[in-house]
């Protein structure tokens, strides 16, 4: 279980959020919502251990999640606004880089996001929606219990959003958790909402 206790975040000389608390269990999904600048991305970065909280704590199975940042990093996948792709590498080569870190089957991950036919194309020629799908394909590689997703469906057409459903369902059925910042509906049935 993950428990956030009274997290606060300070950025650019202002308090972005304060007293953010929630608890999620294996299989749960939590949607972070709120207006532009409310602090959704900042909260995801805090949860990932990429941005120090001003105050508060994050517990993982009752222990301080940030006590060992590399162990914390190993149990999560963080997908930010940026797709984090190397433009000169092919779609398959981009994923192979992550597969070396996390394990997993590159072709199966490409297929899960409908990208198998584009495997050999350099990432720079992919459309923005195809690039987003390639970034999301990292989730179909080796398992990690917590997915932190920042606007995962931005730029995706309706069919591509639907393609995320089996990926999310399988992750949650295996006890995985999803925390996603979004302005758009996502195929995460029974997700709870945390409005910032
Ligand atoms: N690197 C940074 N340095 C300084 N301030 C930042 C930085 N990143 C974000 N902020 C500020 O922190 C606040 C929260 O930004 P954040 O990106 O977390 O909001 P958000 O809810 O994700 O917004 P959006 O819906 O527009 O993506 C904003 O006022 C923003 O200007």
Question: How would you describe this protein?
Answer:
The protein has 196 residues and is an alpha/beta fold. The protein has a domain at 81-143. Helix content is 31%, strand content 27%. The chain contains six helices and nine strands; from the N terminus they run E-E-E-H-E-E-H-E-H-H-H-E-H-E-E. The chain has helices spanning 40-48, 69-74, 91-102, 106-112, 128-137, 158-173; strands at 2-11, 14-24, 29-33, 55-60, 63-64, 76-79, 146-150, 177-181, 192-195. Strands 6-7-8-3-9 form a five-stranded parallel β-sheet, with helices on both faces. A four-stranded antiparallel β-sheet has the order 2-1-4-5, with helices on one face. Helix 3 crosses helix 4. The protein starts with a strand and ends with a strand. The relative contact order is 0.20. The mean pLDDT is 96. The chain binds adenosine-5'-triphosphate. Residues 11-12, 16, 34, 36-42, 181 line the site of adenosine-5'-triphosphate.
Overall average residue pLDDT: 96
Strand order of the largest sheet: 6-7-8-3-9
Overall spatial form: globular
| Termini Cα gap | 21 Å
Total number of beta strands: 9
Proportion of helical residues: 25-40%
Question: What's the layout of helices and strands?
Answer:
Layout lengths: L1 E10 L2 E11 L4 E5 L6 H9 L6 E6 L2 E2 L4 H6 L1 E4 L11 H12 L3 H7 L15 H10 L8 E5 L7 H16 L3 E5 L10 E4 L1
Parallel strand pairs: 3-8, 3-9, 6-7, 7-8
Antiparallel strand pairs: 1-2, 1-4, 4-5
Helix pairs in contact: 3-4
Name its key features.
196 residues, 6 helices, binds adenosine-5'-triphosphate, 31% helix, five-stranded parallel beta sheet, alpha/beta
